[in-house]
Specification:
This protein has 312 residues and is α+β, with helices and mostly antiparallel strands. It is built from six helices and 16 strands. It comes from Elysia chlorotica.
């Protein structure tokens, strides 16, 4: 392609992006105040959900992330499940932490405390002695002589139970990841490069998604490597828009910042351009695969926005 053709393509692409933003922002003009006023609520929800540093479905408290296993399991299996997530059964070390966990627990839940090695000496998962205890009246009872593990009730009181015959829900705990540079409230700090990510809570059309990111001073996510994809997959469960598009020239993909796409983890058979108008791109977070899809206003997906860290 000649330099003149490339220049024309860049100009056309810029005009296309501007037209999309102008069109969408014009449509949402009457609801722009709602978008902005609702942003703090949305940010708060995302922060609670993702903890700004915790994986999806984990809960943030202090410097730790917590995950509730909702299936009744033997404690040995529960420990294995936590370990598979890079965590341990939760060791509770203060009244405040205990109250937080009790407020979220829906049933009796295994926690990381046991006197299996030395009867009456309860140790945390790391082998250290417990400095905080919150036994129910009459507990621990060690009846009938083999109750070496501990569960927390919905009201926060503890009870010793058998480690071999009982099955209960479980609570995993890990340190909050120390991630990159700080990001604004509601944004998750990335681990690959110095970027922040915002995960939309609702499905949107592609133009609406562009507008949503623009209102939040970002762009639809530009994902340049498998490493970056892997770093955000944990926060996602639904197919979402990314910022790649070949609307100007079929087969030539560009990001919304006008840079060319050079990394293509296409799903098998993609891109297909089925119907001749599949110019936008979605990603399946379960596989990390991309697929081309129509940009029209009927197609709706979830949204991931991206911007450099240390920007408001």
């Amino acid at each position: 392609m000649s330099s003149r053709s490339r220049s024309r393509s860049s100009i056309a692409w810029t005009l296309w992006v501007c037209l999309v933003w102008t069109s969408v922002l014009g449509e949402v003009h009457d609801t722009n105040d709602d978008l902005n006023s609702g942003l703090s609520d949305r940010e708060g929800h995302i922060e609670k959900r993702a903890g700004r540093a915790c994986p999806r479905k984990w809960r943030l408290y202090g410097d730790n992330c917590y995950f509730f296993i909702k299936k009744n399991l033997p404690i040995t299996t529960a420990r294995q499940r936590c370990a598979s997530k890079g965590a341990k059964l939760a060791s509770i070390q203060s009244k405040e932490e205990n109250n937080f966990i009790a407020s979220k627990a829906k049933a009796r839940t295994w926690v990381g405390l046991s006197d299996a090695e030395n009867e009456g000496l309860f140790l945390l998962e790391d082998g250290s002695a417990a400095s905080f205890l919150n036994w129910r009246l009459g507990q621990p009872s060690n009846s009938p002589y083999d109750e070496d593990c501990v569960v927390l009730s919905k009201v926060g009181k503890w009870n010793d139970l058998s480690c071999t015959t009982e099955k209960r829900r479980a609570l995993c705990k890990m340190n909050k990841p120390l991630l990159g540079l700080p990001c604004p409230n509601g944004w998750v700090t990335g681990t690959v490069g110095d970027y922040c990510y915002l995960f939309g809570e609702e499905k949107m059309t592609q133009p609406e998604a562009i507008a949503f990111c623009a209102v939040n001073l970002g762009l639809l996510a530009k994902l340049d490597s498998q490493e970056e994809i892997n770093s955000i997959k944990q926060y996602l469960t639904h197919v979402f828009w990314i910022g790649a598009n070949d609307a100007l020239e079929e087969g030539t993909y560009m990001w919304l910042d006008l840079s060319p796409v050079t990394f293509f983890p296409w799903a098998s058979g993609a891109p297909s351009d089925q119907g001749g108008d599949e110019d936008c791109v979605e990603m399946d977070p379960q596989t990390g695969d991309w697929n081309d899809v129509g940009c029209n206003r009927e197609e709706k997906r979830f949204v991931v926005c991206k911007k450099p860290a240390n920007t408001k």
